[in-house]
């Protein structure tokens, strides 16, 4: 028989072996959790770009809706009017055209140009440019802009993904709009102003650059892959993050780490967009309006920036919620202040909870998770959520949790149910 000392030694040895086994198991779980969370945090910003690529670049209607406001942008209007005016003036030989003016048209021509100061060439150039500005500032430009962008979307798609219609031509790594309809409208207005020789200007096709970069060819394949990933990449990122949290030994800390890691990824993506703008504009060739190109860049990535802010705010909300529900000293203090405030409000109201109170207390955990889940589903199903939408939904969830706390009699200080006409007891 084994002595009591030997039995104690065996028990201690078994305990050590079990502790080592648990430690090894926890270490493996921790490593797997870290890898899953890191991979999910890396894919989160790529998933945001993938959604943008699928919905903006891959969807013609969405693209046209996105760029439609540019028709009212002052920089775009200025660049377009300059392109149209220069295209008209390239085909105007003042001396030759004046010789072709019929005698009966000369009075109208003199009246049209006589109101302008300076030499005849300067007067004609000034008139053409002002006419082009008027055309671009009119409703006609918005219509031409929308129609031209719808037709040019194939070239945008081809520029960024290598796909597009077979008739699309990508010249010098640039996607352009043809402003010929605006040139025709300028010619019509010049004729109406008395410059009948403008009718003899041949059809003119002038291009307005939308996207141009020598590096487009280098990013086509990666952008195309992101476009094909579409809405699947964010789902994969979310699944990896969830798997990493569930695998972790300390799930609450893992959830906070996953949320903050996602926020960091969004901040890096936002920083990349901020740095990409000046680099893109500096690389544009001469002749391309940088202010107009900046407006085009901003409008194309507007929804991408909105998605970055939305996901970042969502990550902050999740991290804050996970921290507040933890067992830390500061978290407990915050919860104590919250419950004290709810209890004071309940006592001041002097309301009976009746049978609702015990029912709420019994199902409180499920009601809390249902409120949180409803907020998460609302974020997912919202057509185009923004950071403000996330904040609003978070406040709505907090309001529901406050109602649950208010109706739970054991959630009030001292566990006292408020009763109308009665003062709360000092102790219970």
TrEMBL record:
Keywords: Membrane, Transmembrane, Transmembrane helix
Residues spanning the membrane: 31-54, 232-249, 256-276, 307-325, 366-382
Protein name: Integral membrane protein
Protein's UniProt keywords contain Transmembrane: yes
Species this protein is from: Streptomyces smaragdinus
